[in-house]
UniProtKB/TrEMBL annotation:
Residues 563-584 have a biased composition (Low complexity). This is Branched-chain amino acid ABC transporter ATP-binding protein/permease. It comes from Blastococcus carthaginiensis. InterPro entries: AAA+_ATPase (IPR003593), ABC_AA/LPS_Transport (IPR051120), ABC_transp_permease (IPR001851), ABC_transporter-like_ATP-bd (IPR003439), ABC_transporter-like_CS (IPR017871), BCA_ABC_TP_C (IPR032823), LivM-like (IPR043428), P-loop_NTPase (IPR027417). It is found in: Cell membrane. One of its GO terms (molecular function) is ATP binding. CDD domains: ABC_Mj1267_LivG_branched, TM_PBP1_LivM_like. Its main location: membrane.
Length: 604
């Protein structure tokens, strides 16, 4: 019975292994078609260089060929990956397809490959061997999935910029994923060669590459079972066709294309996304931080941010100019200013996202400019974004786990051999994530996908994710945007409680009342320049600030919300907990205008 289906089963296994080579990079959001080239190089070099079965025995011959093939595939990925890893989306697909085609043409014109006639290889692979190899590959990706490395790859797929800000070295992770893809494609190439008896360079052409990609996409790139499901579907369709007596050759590609369309339109996570992902909050009240990497924070009063003449110019537009600013440990600094004043550009420079055009800046002892974002994050800077940058398809808990990347330890290799220490470290990271979720009041929603949360909850989730790295400096870009008065008041209390724990906080906010109530110091930017800096009540009464907001100091100062809030006494940090309604939710607009509270416009 099994013999009857041996060929089908072997091709399901081979197809799944090839699909895993695509899955290896899709999981990190990379679209590559170069795997056909790696498989081809591996198949020919393995079959050509390995000793024959007659000399060393069938299984050793196959194992030597596999070792050669996987090494060649991985090496090919390094050679191709180093110059192409900065490419994204379709550009990477085109570059890697070019490589695969170049390999095919070169091999087609070599004597030792047999050219278009192909190279004869003895059949050694059995269905059992094929499924053993598939089981090992699937095991690799299964154990990788929940590891720190696997989560980092998923984070890169979901939002590369946010992943960088969590301290993930995106370039290194993408290259590692690409090398894995090369090795797995190499494995496929050799196994294929030792099964089909005759390999030709055209077996690894564009169509083969697209089939591998389609199998992986249909199966799904969000769960390790995806390639297996995809390959099962792709291989079984023609069998069913044969069983019902329909011989038309177009049915399989037609159904595959149709399914691809359906998957892309209605099931972006592929067939595997139909299987629910479980994320469990850690049980027990163990509150220790054992298993997490320790952080050293600056002592209260030490300089955290030092900016000297910092400026940023965009083609003649001075977004920020000549900013001198020092932020010391323990301060809660509010950065306010009218729309377009340069606030986001300034915090983007501080967090390393945007290089300055002039001046210098040191953040937690790290000079910014050419330092990559993940290194600045590693120095202790964590942030949220003006427009939420969550990992949408991951659960709330998984989002915060990625946030704990910098303080958790690598677990992948230890997970492979089930070392108890890997489990201990994972539990520590989970506890850290659970604590941060609890701190922002989102424990109940831990298992919900980030994209399914309400706007206010998404902003709080971003804060929890930023807290998970145990930062020394927390930067919040409009954290109260989209929140109602009650939520904004709770957020204000959360920020003050974080400051009481010694965290230094820099936050941009249009809700001026909340800023005045929350901060120890307020810095006001206008047209890229600092026009005021000082205690909240001082700044609120500063004529230059009132003019920047209202357009006319004389006309509006008495009525102005800045002055009003400041004078009402519910303004300075620590001035007492005003009831939620006392938090003025005013938004400064362009000079001379004052927007009424508007929560919808920030939701974009
Ligand atoms: N990438 C960019 N390219 C060109 N100009 C930019 C870029 N980013 C910002 N600017 C310009 O720099 C100025 C400051 O923008 P920025 O977003 O920093 O202001 P902001 O104070 O954060 O504004 P808002 O409160 O509306 O978010 C604006 O004139 C903006 O158009």
């Amino acid at each position: 019975m099994l013999d009857q289906y041996a060929t089908t089963l072997t091709f399901i296994a081979l197809g799944a292994i090839f699909a895993y080579s695509f899955y290896a990079v899709l999981i990190a959001g990379q679209l590559s078609l170069g795997q056909a080239g790696f498989a081809s190089l591996a198949a020919f070099s393995g079959a050509y260089l390995a000793p024959s079965g007659a000399d060393v025995g069938d299984v050793p011959a196959l194992l030597i060929a596999v070792a050669i093939g996987m090494s060649v595939g991985a090496l090919g990925a390094v050679v191709l990956g180093l110059p192409t890893m900065h490419l994204r989306g379709v550009f990477l697909a085109i570059a890697t397809l070019g490589f695969a085609e170049a390999v095919r043409v070169v091999l087609l014109n070599q004597e030792w490959t047999g050219g278009a006639q192909g190279l004869g290889v003895s059949r050694i692979l059995t269905v059992g061997m094929a499924w053993t190899a598939l089981a090992l590959v699937a095991y690799w990706f299964w154990r990788m999935g929940r590891s720190r490395y696997g989560r980092a790859l998923e984070a890169i797929r979901e939002d590369e910029l946010a992943a960088r800000s969590m301290g993930i070295d995106v370039g290194r992770h993408r290259l590692a994923a690409f090398i894995t893809a090369g090795a797995v494609a190499g494995l496929y190439g050799v196994l294929y060669a030792y099964y089909v008896r005759l390999i030709a360079p055209n077996d690894f052409d564009f169509v083969a590459a697209v089939e591998g990609l389609v199998t992986a996409v249909v199966g799904g790139s969000t769960m390790f079972l995806g390639p297996l499901l995809g390959s099962g579907f792709q291989t079984i369709v023609p069998e069913i066709q044969r069983a019902v007596g329909v011989e038309a050759g177009w049915i399989r590609p037609f159904l595959a294309s149709l399914l691809l369309l359906v998957v892309i339109l209605f099931l972006p996570g592929g067939l595997a996304s139909l299987i629910p992902r479980r994320t469990r909050m850690p049980s027990g009240d163990d509150d220790t931080t054992a298993g997490l990497a320790g952080r050293r924070h600056p002592a209260a009063g030490d300089p955290v941010v030092t900016l000297a003449g910092l400026g940023k110019e965009y083609g003649g537009v001075h977004a920020v100019r000549g900013v001198d600013l020092e932020i010391r440990a323990g301060e809660v600094v509010g950065l306010i200013g009218p729309n377009g004043a340069g606030k986001t550009t300034l915090v983007n420079m501080i967090s390393g996202l945007v290089p300055p055009s002039s001046g210098s800046a040191t953040v937690l002892g790290t000079a910014i400019g050419s330092t990559p974002v993940h290194r600045i994050a590693a120095a202790g800077v964590s942030r949220t974004f003006q427009h939420s940058k969550l990992f949408n398809r991951l659960s709330a808990l998984e989002n915060v786990l990625v946030g704990a990347h910098l303080v958790s330890r690598p677990t992948f290799l230890r997970r492979m051999i089930w070392l108890p220490s890997a489990r201990r470290d994972e539990r520590a990271a989970l506890r850290q994530a659970a604590r941060c979720l609890e701190r922002v009041g989102l424990s109940e929603l831990a298992g919900n996908r980030a994209e399914s949360l309400s706007y206010g909850d998404q902003r709080r989730l971003e804060i929890a994710r930023a807290l998970a790295s145990d930062p020394s400096l927390l930067i919040l870009d409009e954290p109260a945007a989209g929140m109602n008065h009650v939520e904004a008041a709770r957020l204000s209390e959360l920020i003050r409680s974080l400051a009481r724990d010694g965290l230094t906080i820099l936050f941009i906010e249009h809700n001026v009342g909340m800023v005045l109530q929350t901060c120890t110091r307020v810095v006001v930017l206008n047209f890229g320049e600092v026009i005021a800096s000082g205690a909240p009540d001082q700044v609120a009464a500063d004529p230059a600030v009132i003019e920047a907001y209202l357009g006319s100091a004389e006309d509006d100062a008495d009525e102005g919300p800045l002055a009003g809030d400041a004078r009402s006494g519910a303004t300075a940090a620590g001035a007492g907990d005003a009831p939620p309604d006392a938090v003025a939710n005013v938004r400064p607009g362009a000079a001379g205008t004052l927007d009424t509270p508007d929560t919808s416009r920030d939701a974009t």
